[in-house]
Amino acid sequence: MSERDREPTSSSQATGDDGGERSTTDASNQPRDPSRRRALSIGVGVLGGGLAAVPLIPALGYLVYPLSNTITSAGDDFIEVGGRAQFGPTVPIKVDLFADRKDAWSVTRQVKIGSCWVLEREGELKAFSTVCPHLGCAIDFDAEASVFRCPCHRSEFDLDGAPAFGPSPRALDTLEIKQESELVAIRYRRFRQNIREKVEV
Ligand code: FES
After folding, report:
1. pTM for the full model?
2. Would you say the CB of residue 150 lies under 6 angstroms from ligand 1?
3. Which residue's CA is minimally distant from atom 1 of ligand 1?
4. Domain 71-187 annotated CATH 2.102.10.10
5. Where are the domains of the chain?
6. Burial of residue 109, with CB atoms counted within 10 A of its CB: 0-12 exposed, 13-18 middle, 19 or more buried
7. CA separation for the pair 183, 181 (Å, rounded)
8. Predicted confidence (pLDDT) at residue 130 exceeds the cutoff of 50
9. What phi, psi does 72 have (nearest 5°)?
10. What is the rounded CA–CA span in Å between residue 88 and residue 122?
11. Residue 124 bridge partners (DSSP)
12. Residue 163 CA, ligand 1 centroid: distance in Å
């Protein structure tokens, strides 16, 4: 039998009668390579799963929102920090401020929200946030040198909170303070760091 008389044995014939490209599909137009078919199935599955998940995204966000948006704040309230008599003019007293922490499901009572240094200057009480205006480290008081110091980049502040040394762009941040009868109370706030102006956040 000559080459011309020989018939193709199956649909997997590699070369068409006109000598064209190899066929990679069968009559139903499906990929004949099993690995390609599997890859296509996986792709369709992933796409279908992704589309099915779209309506769930807002619901998940609703459930997760309270976890990512816990509020720890005293709002506009003043927080009592003790009697007036404890605060003198030369050695500041560090006081911690507590408020309730709230999320969508629960309230945790009396969580620490911050601290401040309190002292009397020229007959008036002053409260300085312990958050350094430079980059937010905790301000200490050096009783020997009688200055406030930041341990991170060595900023120093005098007893009035004015910058005396280092990179801090402004004075210590003052907090509102009031006295009723013999009780002292402070309104806690946080401020933007590393800028000259005192801007609440
Ligand atoms: S954070 Fe206080 S000096 Fe830099």
Report:
1. 0.66
2. yes
3. 135
4. yes
5. 34-67, 71-187
6. exposed
7. 6
8. yes
9. -120, 105
10. 10
11. 121
12. 12
